[in-house]
Amino acid sequence: MWWSHVLQQGQFTNPETPGYVGFANLPNQVHRKSVKKGFEFTLMVVGESGLGKSTLINSLFLTDLYPERIIPGAAEKIERTVQIEASTVEIEERGVKLRLTVVDTPGYGDAINSQDCFSTIIAYIDDQFERYLHDESGLNRRHIVDNRVHCCFYFISPLGHGLKPLDVQFMKAIHNKVNVVPVIAKADTLTLRERERLKRRILDEIDEHSIKIYHLPDAESDEDEEFKEQTRTLKASIPFAVVGSNQQIEAKGKKVRGRLYPWGVVEVENPEHNDFLKLRTMLITHMQDLQEVTQDLHYENFRSERLKRGGRFELLEVPPDPIFLLLQLALFHFSSQLSTALP
Amino acid sequence: HYYCRQSESIGSTLLGYIGIDTIIEQMRKKTMKAGFDFNIMIVGHSGLGKSTLVNTLFKSQVSRWSSGWGGEHKIPKTVEIKAVSHVIEEGGVKMKLTVIDTPGFGDQINNENCWDPISKYINEQYEKFLKEEVNIARKKRIPDTRVHCCLYFISPTGHSLRQLDIEFMKHLSRVVNIIPVIAKSDTMTPDEKNEFKHRVRKELETHGIEYYPQNEFDDDMEDKNENDKIREAMPFAVVGSDKEFQVNGKRVLGRKTAWGVVEVENPNHCEFALLRDFLIRSHLQDLKEVTHNIHYETYRARRLNDNGGLHPISANNTQESNL
What we know:
Chain A: Belongs to the TRAFAC class TrmE-Era-EngA-EngB-Septin-like GTPase superfamily. Septin GTPase family. Chain A: This is Septin-type G domain-containing protein. Chain A: Residues 37-309 form the Septin-type G domain. The complex is a heterodimer of chains A (343) and B (323). Chain A is built from 10 helices and 10 strands. Chain A is an alpha/beta fold. In chain A, the strands form 2 sheets. Chain A has a 6-stranded mixed beta sheet with strand order 3-4-2-5-6-7, sandwiched between helices. Chain A has a 3-stranded antiparallel beta sheet with strand order 8-9-10, with no helix packed on it. In chain A, a hairpin with a 2-residue loop joins strand 9 (254-261) and strand 10. Chain B starts with a strand and ends in a 16-residue tail after the last helix. In chain B, 36% of the residues are buried. At the A-B interface, strand 1, helix 1, strand 3, helix 4 and helix 8 of A face strand 1, helix 1, strand 3, strand 4 and helix 3 of B.
C-alpha cells in the first residue's frame, strides 16, 4: 500500500454541485443507526444512608426510580451488610432511547465497623467486567449487553471537615476500576463560604492521597466559545455541591423543585443555590466520554490483568504468539462456561 | 458472594427535558473527528472500466490508474492484489479510502481458481484484525483493512452470466459483501439492458448467490422495504467517465460519441447515480457494519472452533491459519 498526499475537496453546499460525492452524509448514516440502537449507561451511587442519594437520582432524571421506598430503622441497618440494588429504566427523549441502570449500594458505611463494606461493591464492578470479557471472547457476540459501571457518584457528607478515612479508602480502592465523581451531598446545610472551603479541603485531600477522580476533558479548540466556557465552569466547580428534591414548591410566583424552610426556599435548579444543574449537565454532556474511558482505560486494565493471570495456562515471559493467545481465549471462554454462574 | 436485586421498568415518562438526545450529537462529533475508513475491492476482467468507474464514484483519481502511472496496462500472469489509499475530505468529513484492484482476474487462458488470491487477501485482513483484537495490550482503534465491499463487474454481453462470474460470486458472497454491476452499459439499448438485468438476477437467484444487501441481514421492516427496492433494481447498469462535456448549457460527466453524449449522472442514460447514492450516500456505514458484525464474526467463530475445544495443547502444536 502506498499513500498519496491528502486530496482536498472544497466545501460544497449544493449536493448536485459537480465534485460532490456524498460521503459527507456518513455521519447521518451513523446517527440513524445510533438512534435505532439507543444507549446503555450504568451509574453507581455510593454513600452513607441519609445523604439524599435516592432523592438526587430521582431529581437528575426527573423520574421516580424508587417509587415505594421503605426506609429501614437503625436496628435493621446494623445487621445488614452492603447490598447491591440495580434498577433499570428506559428513558426516551426526542426519539433517542437511553437504557439507564442505577446501581445503589444501601448499607455502605452503616455498620458500626465499616471495615469491609466495600469489598462487595468492588466484587460487583469486577463481575461486570468479567461478564463482559467472557461475552466478548465468546462465539456469539451480536447482542452483548454492557452492564459495566460507567460512572460512580461518591457522596460526601457536608457535616465533616473534608474526607473521612472511609471516603479515602473507598475511593482509592475503586479509582482504577471506575470513573469516580465526588459529590457533596445536602449542600443546603452549608453557607456559600463554608461550601467553598469544604470543596478546597476535599480537593487538597484528593491530591494528598493521590486519588484519581474523573477528569473532564478540555474542550476541543474547534468548539464554540459557549461550550468552552461551560467546560471551564464545570471543571472549576468540582466537587459538585448538590441538593435534591422531589417536591414542587411555590417560589417567586412559579413552581420550582425545592426544599421549603422557614427562612426561604432552596431551589434545586438554581445555579446560585447549588451545583445540581452543573452535575446534570456534566453527566449528560460527558456520558459518551465516561463510557469511552470505562472501555479504553478501566476495562482494558482489567482485561490485561485478567489475561495475564490466565485461566489454566500461565503466559510465558516471551510475548505470546497471537494464535496461542487465541487458543487461550477460547479455552478461557469454554472453561468459564463450566464454572458456576453468578447467582 | 453478594446478593444483587434487580428491577426493571420500561418506558418511564419524563417530567421535563434532560438532554439525552444531545448524546447523539456528541457521538457524531466524535466519529467525525476520528474519520472513516472505507475499503473497496474491484473485481472483473480487464477492459470493463473498473478504474474509471471508481474514479467517477469518488470524483477523484483514487484508483491505481491515476494520471501518474502512464498508459500501459500490462496484464499480469497471475492475479495480483494492489491496494491504494487516499484521504478524501468532504463537508468536514475525512475518509481514508482504499481501493483494492485485482488485475489479472479473468484474463488468463485458464482461469480456474483465479479467485484464490482474492479469497486469501480477504481472509488475511480478517486475520490481521483478529490478531490485534485478542492482543493483551491492544490498540484503542484497531486499523481496519478488511474489505467492506467488493464491486463485481459483469461484462455486458447481453446474454447471461459467465461461468466465472457465477463461480466467483458463489465462493465469495459468504465471505464479503458483493455488489454486482453491469459494466459499460452504454453498449446496450434500454430494452436489451432490462432483459439482461432480469436474466442476470434470475441466474443469481438460481445459484443461491446472496449479493449485498443480503435478505437475511435486514434489521427491521423499514430496512427490508428499502432494501427490497434496491435488490430488485440490482445489478445496476453503469457507465463511468472522468471527462466533462457541455450538454444543454450544463457541464456533465459523460462519453461523447458521434450520435450523442452518454451522460453518466442522467438516470435515463444509466444507473450510475443509483449506484452512487446506494453505495455512498445511504449504505456506506451499513456495508462496514455487515462486514464487522457478520462476515468478520463468521471468520472469528470458525477460527475459535478450529483451534479451541477442550483438547490439551502440546508444546509443538502450531496451528496454521486458514488462509
